[in-house]
Write a structure and sequence with these properties.
43% helix, single chain, three-stranded antiparallel beta sheet, eight-stranded parallel beta sheet
């Protein structure tokens, strides 16, 4: 019998969504500080059979946590102890910013979905970099005591809101130079709907110089080849997808993360009036499942084995993870499902994936 769904209904479902997130994440971090996380890790650690090689790295599990949950690198160790094979931090911007006014995070419980217009609220790359460095060292020390690969740290970077699109490259380079040395891989986010003008950067003519500049700065800063990916929106047309696929291959990017949140609102169970009250923002969760899978399959057909594809959007179960892997993803991420499934979500997915492997 699972306790968390009842706990969610009683403790979180009536609460402001952002406040609930802060309390839940705070509890996870507190458990780590109290030493409870180390005990949980023994229960949540992925089966060695789930180890996955991608981006030149070894991931303890193919299932990881998408950007958005830990925007400021406050809980990488604690989240890793819950069974995530990687934690993607961010989105991090060149300058600190408060994000959009509250309320800015809304649950659509009937749809197992979330609408957010957070607006890249974070402390800025310079403040986040030391936390990344400390977490990376702590995970390395922890792993050396156990015969297991270190959970992977990804860093997702985006544009500061008050920076004009024409000045975006310089702004992304502020983040790149601050965090690249501590990132196992780096993601250029040009697909959030909550930063004005950001999605304009998905145009190939704008994206090409941005990716070229970020890659050069990342490799120079880290003194190694930092795997570089771009995160795209699910709302792109097939022609836009083809253009981005061709650009990624031309630039020899390491991969693509597909997909970010959607601005669409079709086929929701939540009454239209309630959805309208939430206002603008990106929709994530179960309603995104079909489109995210479709984009993955299209990109796989376009690029074959020449890019590492990371699939995210509507992932809730081990069956969802397996479907994405079978469709061509090397890695899979989740976020919204974590809010509805609770702290042992990743561990349950890993166990079911492991049982499937053992049956086969």
């Amino acid at each position: 019998m699972r306790i968390y769904p009842a706990f969610f209904r009683l403790a979180f479902s009536w609460m402001d969504a952002e406040r609930a997130h802060q309390l839940g994440f705070g509890a996870i971090r507190l458990s780590h500080r109290l030493g409870i996380g180390a005990l949980l890790q023994r229960f949540c650690a992925p089966d060695p059979a789930l180890r996955t090689e991608a981006l030149g790295l070894v991931f303890p599990s193919p299932f990881g946590l998408a950007a958005g949950f830990d925007k400021g690198a406050h809980g990488i160790e604690a989240l890793s102890q819950l069974g995530f094979g990687h934690v993607e931090v961010g989105t991090v911007t060149g300058q600190a910013q408060p994000g959009n006014p509250r309320p800015r995070l809304f649950r659509l419980i009937q749809d197992r979905a979330v609408i957010n217009r957070m607006g890249f609220n974070n402390d800025g790359a310079q403040a986040i970099a030391p936390r990344l460095a400390a977490a990376r060292q702590a995970l390395q020390d922890w792993t050396e005591k156990r015969p297991a690969p270190r959970p992977v740290i990804g860093v997702n970077i985006g544009k500061t809101k008050n920076v004009e699109v024409d000045d975006a490259v310089a702004d992304y380079l502020l983040s790149t130079r601050a965090v690249a040395g501590y990132a196992d891989y780096l993601v250029v986010n040009v697909s959030s709907p909550n930063t004005p003008g950001l999605r304009l950067l998905q145009n190939a003519d704008s994206l090409r110089p941005l990716l070229q500049a970020v890659r050069a700065a990342a490799n120079e800063t880290a003194q190694r080849a930092v795997p570089l990916l771009v995160k795209i929106a699910p709302d792109l047309s097939n022609e836009d997808l083809q253009e981005i696929a061709e650009l990624a291959l031309e630039l020899e990017l390491d991969g693509v993360i597909c997909t970010n949140t959607t601005i669409a609102r079709e086929a929701l169970r939540t009454p239209a009036g309630k959805v309208a009250e939430c206002g603008p923002g990106g929709l994530s969760g179960s309603p995104l499942k079909a489109r995210s899978l479709e984009v993955l399959r299209q990109l796989k057909a376009m690029t074959g084995d020449r890019l590492t594809l990371i699939s995210v959007g509507g992932v809730e179960t081990a069956e969802d993870v397996r479907e994405r892997l079978d469709a061509g993803a090397a890695l899979v991420q989740g976020y919204t499902g974590f809010l509805y499934e609770g702290p042992f979500w990743a561990a349950r997915i890993n166990r079911r994936l492991s049982r499937e492997l053992n049956r086969n």
